[in-house]
Amino acid sequence: MPVHRESRVRINRRALLKRAAGFGGTALLLPRHTFAQAPGVVTAEAERPKIPLGVMSGDPTGGRAVIWSKTDRPARMLVEYATREDFAGASRVEGPAALPVTDYTARVDLQGLPAGADIFYRVTFRDLADPKKLSAPAGGRLRMPGARRAITFAFSGDEAGQGWGINPEWGGYRIYETMRRHSPDFFIHSGDQIYADNPIKAEVKTDDGKVWKNLTTEGKSKVAQTIDDYRANFAYNLLDENKRRFAAEVPLFVQWDDHEVRNNWYPGQMIGIDDYTVKSASLLSAYSRRAMFEYNPIRHSLIYHCFTSSRSLAGSRSFKAVFVSRCFSSYATISAQMGE
Asked: Residue 265 belongs to what domain range?
């Protein structure tokens, strides 16, 4: 597999998606029928599996990276990847079945990826009930660590809190597009990826008398108390096209804080407010943790409470349930100071 050197290859998303139309071509590691329909078979677009929330990559370290996506029915995840934007010399792997038990999300942990390379990938889902039906491909890219070069990364947190959700009239989550244009090597989401205790209403009045108009969903219209409610919270943010475009091009490292469950929760807490019929914060935490792993390109194996190659996190803020899906030592030694 060819390896990109010091030069940075910028993905042209439109070109990548055009090339992705050829996803039903020859297969190298799998039988041809895995990625291509039989000659003469034409499937109506409405009958094909869908990829409603795009693709994401994450946890790039040690020659490995996780590729994530979601479909709308029981279907097999198929991933094609290469170090060239035209997918010459591509490798292909057959991933897990996306089933109701994971809300039709699935991931593949790619291995043996060259250090410092740009990896181009595309995901297709094959209908398990009718293998002739394939989704349209969804493509993305990521940059692997390991090259001796300067790196750029972005970090943020606190997404869609206090009732401020996706406002299409304002341009949605525009910050993601701003970050994407800087082409960072990776993004650290530093917690409060969702506000499970803050419903999103259709309209919110601002201090200057204007009206903020949110995109709304049934699952985000109330405090989260079930596994499906928590899934709906994570899915909500991926309805924003800026975030989907960003997540397809920049690999993620993900932490959580408190609002992934509810404000200032703690293990064993019994919730004493009327909005909650489920009173156990520990039960809500279990729901949230499962949904978070289902809706992020992170591995299930380990939970980290520190950056192992950096100096200790210090500062005046006490950490509640913060975890890091993987450490960042493959990129650089990162020291952090967390304050109020």
From this structure: 153-294
